[in-house]
Amino acid sequence: MNFDFSEDQKYLAGEARKFLEAESAIPVVREVLNDDDKAYSEGLWKKIAEMGWLGTAVPEEQGGLGLGMLEMCVLAEEMGRVLAPVPFSSTAYFLTEAVKLAGSDEVKNDILPRVVAGEIIGCYAASEGPGHPDPANLKTTFDGSTVSGTKIPVTDGGIATHAVVLAKEGSGASLVLVDLSGAGVTRKTLSTLDPTRGHAELTFDKTPGVRLGAAGDGASLNDQLMDKVAVLLAFEQLGGASRALEMAKEYALERYAFGRPIAGNQAIKHKLAEMYVKNEVARSNCFYGAWALSTDAPEMPEAAAAARVAASEAFWFASKENIQTHGGMGFTWEVDCHLYYRRAKLLAVQAGGPKVWKEKLVRALEQKNAA
Amino acid sequence: MDFNDTPEEAAFRKEARAFLEKHLKPKGSERASRDRANMLEKAKAWQKTKAENKFAQITWPKEWGGRGGTAMQNVIWGQEESKFDAPTGPFAIGLGMCVPTVIAFGSDEHKERYVQKALMGEEIWCQLFSEPSAGSDVAGLKTRAVKDGDDWVINGQKVWTSGAHYSDYGILLVRTDPKVPKHKGLTMFIVDMKQPGVEVRPIHQASGGREFNEVYFTDVRIPDKDRLGDVGAGWKVALVTLMNERLAVGGSPGPDWAEIMEYARDHGSLSDQAFREKLADWYVAAQGYKLTKFRTQTALSRGQTPGPENSIGKIITANHLQDICNSAIEMQDHFGIINETDRMPGDAIFQQSFMWAPGLRIAGGTDEILKNIIAERVLGLPQDVRVDKDKPFDELKSG
């Protein structure tokens, strides 16, 4: 039994944490929060690219570090802890994994080295309105060479150079890679719950695109892509949830009421203990997701879904109860609680909300049982 | 990350499984396995067989009849034995908690007299700590021991004593000095449960069963040589017992997500959206607990001491058992109130566990106490206010 990260992976996590703390991520997050024209921190993004993180799980022949998905999970958790305001997930999870999953050799050799070099910012464009995007009912179309339609909201859509678009093609759906410098692209910046991550509405009008995988395979490819992304996002959620618990604990220990720290109050202690239980349930499920992701295990659908459901619940609970533990202070702009509260909800509904993933989980369990 | 055994672990697992297959039937393989008649005799026989083959008390040193094995081997043994219809219940407390305390604090004479007989299944032990007004606050107990020559004379009452009705010996925590603060006036003894003055009364539980007992002590004499540890050092001795308890308390028996899913599939509720969401939550929690144990095993197999992550177990499992049973009964609607094993799916497993679950949330530490433990020992938050800490016991209010 070896259900843990290796010493090397733990070392990577420690180094990543040191780096992100030295780059004082919360002030960096606030720069993005307080400036409507800023969709991300260009400075932090540049440094992350220089560190080689964007090539973590990219093969060496395409300029990457050739490490594995476990290393990506480790980095994702650290990025989640500090709410890094950079298009890391859009680029390193959605775009990179879509290209790795279904791109032709030509596409891989074109795109991946540029991702590693920090020249490409990705985004994932699936949603077209309220509810979870259903590949069968998409309005955005792909005719084999161009994409037309509107996607809203698109995380990092305002700054991305390339988009992975889920579009209708014939009677099915396809995943299409679109260079956003091409013709017919209109971008509109959106105000969202979490201003520390930029969002936009993207409209395509006969914009050239390259299909990833075969025509009509989009629904199945998208499912596979979402399983991979779900695990990585779950680690970001886990990082955020862990940090929210730490914040609540630190504050409860230093805040005095009735002559003693509020952390000595059983109501507060039990609240924090419940956060801890949810975080541990999430951590164990995330580990299992990481194992499935790194080994291409047949258990991937239920492992990814369980990680996602557990981490969404943990981050939601920790972020809201962190505000509650801080009392009135927690509801101020100056204290960081709301940043975690915002990010918790963004991550929970990005790539499918808990309801969607619970349904995926039960369906996976049904299939397993029928097999 | 991988879930496979090391070659050494795999070899031990194979050996353990071969031994189990030779002697026991797989769990649930036949209806007779649920027959509880002669349970005590079966348990004693199984314990003897295990001990003779060095599969009893895997981690105990060989000099005490154990295997001298690793903590990881103990985990593997537990995993394998639990797949079989193994009657282990009557020995769990004695061998898991009481006898290790005797080994740690008893005289050579005690160890000679008691350890081997317990290991061979010839004598059964119980643990006499809780009292009617000392449950979560065990150190508030009132049973008195007064020195009389070379003996101590015991008077008082214990409660929730599992298996006292068939036990031969017990470890007994009593108050020897009420003039000092509560933790300082306690002393631990070995008590012969069959001697005059010890009266065991089974408690009729809410579940209908009678596994726990009240035990009354009336002028019971215990020789001073049967003391475990120093006079007044009983709390220290008890902590060793309780530490072993935490290692011993594992998951909760009873139906889990898989069983309610199967029931729902057979009875048309699996298409209900609200039910599907609940099912996902139960799976995630159960899986979270199971995988957390894998993390603990990883630490054990590396020779490390497991971290605090295991402390979440009982909070999750006991609550979910209650919740799952509640949902299953509601799913059965009118029919759900029937608690007859012959008429109900899975031998009324949801009904039986529904009535047992409240006890699980209390036994071995209530949810509230466990949350305190997580808050204080894992997260490092301040202890609850203890107004009784420095006061002599006989000046404390109680009730």
TrEMBL record, chain A:
Belongs to the acyl-CoA dehydrogenase family. This is Acyl-CoA dehydrogenase family protein. Transmembrane segments: none annotated. Residues 123-206 form the Acyl-CoA oxidase/dehydrogenase middle domain. Residues 6-119 form the Acyl-CoA dehydrogenase/oxidase N-terminal domain. InterPro entries: Acyl-CoA_Oxase/DH_mid-dom, Acyl-CoA_Oxase/DH_mid-dom_sf, AcylCo_DH-like_C, AcylCo_DH/oxidase_C, AcylCoA_DH/ox_N, AcylCoA_DH/ox_N_sf, AcylCoA_DH/oxidase_NM_dom_sf. Residues 223-353 form the Acyl-CoA dehydrogenase/oxidase C-terminal domain. The keyword Iron does not apply. Keywords: FAD, Flavoprotein, Oxidoreductase. Its cofactor is FAD. It comes from Hyphomonas adhaerens MHS-3. GO terms for molecular function: acyl-CoA dehydrogenase activity; flavin adenine dinucleotide binding. Coiled coil: none annotated.
From TrEMBL, chain B:
Keywords: FAD, Flavoprotein, Oxidoreductase. Residues 126-220 form the Acyl-CoA oxidase/dehydrogenase middle domain. One of its GO terms (cellular component) is plasma membrane. Its cofactor is FAD. InterPro entries: Acyl-CoA_Oxase/DH_mid-dom (IPR006091), Acyl-CoA_Oxase/DH_mid-dom_sf (IPR046373), AcylCo_DH-like_C (IPR036250), AcylCo_DH/oxidase_C (IPR009075), AcylCoA_DH/ox_N (IPR013786), AcylCoA_DH/ox_N_sf (IPR037069), AcylCoA_DH/oxidase_NM_dom_sf (IPR009100), Mycobact_Acyl-CoA_DH (IPR052161). Residues 6-122 form the Acyl-CoA dehydrogenase/oxidase N-terminal domain. One of its GO terms (molecular function) is oxidoreductase activity, acting on the CH-CH group of donors. It comes from the Bacteria. Transmembrane segments: none annotated. It holds the Pfam family Acyl-CoA_dh_N. Residues 232-379 form the Acyl-CoA dehydrogenase/oxidase C-terminal domain. Belongs to the acyl-CoA dehydrogenase family. This is Acyl-CoA dehydrogenase.
